[in-house]
Amino acid sequence: MAPETTEQTQEELILGFLAEGGEDFTSGEALSGKLGLSRTAVWKHVEALRGKGYRIEAVPARGYRLVEVPDRLTGLELGPLLATHDLGHTIHYHDTLPSTNERAFRLAHDGAEHGEVVVADQQTAGKGRRGRTWTSPPGLNLYCSAILRPDLAPQRAPELTLVAAVALTEVLREAGAEAAIKWPNDVQIDGLKVAGILTELSADPDRVHFIVLGMGVNLNAQPEHFPEELRAQATSLSQVRGQRVPRALFTANLLNRLEEWLDLHLETGFVAVRQRWKELSSTLGQDVLVRTDRREFRGHAEDIDESGALLVRAEGGSLERVLAGDVERLRPRVPGKA
Ligand code: BTN
After folding, report:
1. Which atom of ligand 1 has the smallest separation from the CA of 99?
2. N or C: at which end does the chain have fewer Cβ atoms within 10 angstroms?
3. How far is the CA of 75 from the centre of ligand 1 (A)?
């Protein structure tokens, strides 16, 4: 199926006004005035929206009210919920893709602008960190990749992964889950993974061309949607909340929050992000097993430095700086037990 790309259509504008109205009715007269359309034309657009799965209540002498948004992630659903200046203004929606990161990388390579976002309902080859795959069944979760063109030295690009982890964790907390960040960028609830971030970079030695920020969030997946070997390590927001999560609302909240943090990062640097990351982290203060490509060691996770590297006090007493790898929390030793 061809991707749907958005511009502000009349239907989107109507949805925007209705979303703004919340529980209140918006009169047909007000809508036709705002849009410069006849009342009949407004009614026809409302009918078209109903045909796309929107539930819009219409009451004579009161007007229209948006009751339910379809569980889809095209620009039509997301546009009216976004409060961003750039992020998500163009949504490249696909029913199915191998990987939103791959698609975004190709689009960016071909000149896509800062803030364009690729979303897929399903991924057939979702990519995780360190060559892993990301389970991406249809109709349940969020898989999206944002194209960013920040004015940033390439060495500072990894900071954006921490920016995204902060935004994701805050939005999950606001949705009622006790989410926390496990270094470097896993988002967990009760020690189980709910979201992951994969950042990919195109750069010269002194200049970033673009960054693709890929985020996968388990929103409505149930245990049977994960491969057997992951069931004991993964969860979803709906498993924790006990009710279905409206995907469009979550996605819009995430993009809105992400842009706020990206702006702050660009204006003030990494300091505020680092501070917030530390508040939201479950890794600091823990005894951990560190695995990198080259080595494995035990120690105590003390801090992250000004570039996001993890500082671990190794068992021998040295302070080790870990730039990339995985950490596993070690259970505290019970005295008397081996
Ligand atoms: C991780 O290993 O924790 C990172 C997972 C990142 C998954 C997301 S889903 C959307 C985007 N497209 C991909 O192929 N991967 C990222």
Report:
1. 14
2. C
3. 21
Please state, in angstroms and as integers, the Cα–Cα distance from residue 81 to each residue in 78, 186, 213, 220, following that order: 5, 26, 21, 20
CA of 8 to the centre of ligand 1 (A): 29
Burial class of residue 293 (count of CB atoms within 10 Å of its CB; 0-12, 13-18, 19+): exposed
Q: Supply the residue whose CA is at minimum distance from atom 2 of ligand 1.
A: 128
**Shortest CA distance to 282 belongs to which of 151, 190, 146?**
190
Query: Within 6 Å (CB) of ligand 1, which residues are found?
Result: 99-101, 123, 126-129, 132, 134, 143-145, 186, 196-198, 214-216
Q: Which residue has the tokens 């009760």?
A: 190
Atom of ligand 1 nearest to the CA of 100: 12
Would the pLDDT of 334 be above 70?
no
CA distance 248 to 235: 20
- Please, how many CA atoms are within 13 Å of residue 69, restricted to the half-sphere of its CB? 24
Q: What one-character DSSP code corresponds to residue 45?
A: H
pLDDT at 338: 45
Res. 12 pLDDT band, cuts 50 70 90 = confident
Please state the atom number of ligand 1 nearest to the C-alpha of residue 193: 3
The whole-angstrom separation of Cα 270 and Cα 13 is 37
pLDDT at 335: 57
Digit-coded pLDDT (tens) for 42-56: 999 999 999 988 999
**How does the average pLDDT of the chain come out, rounded?**
92
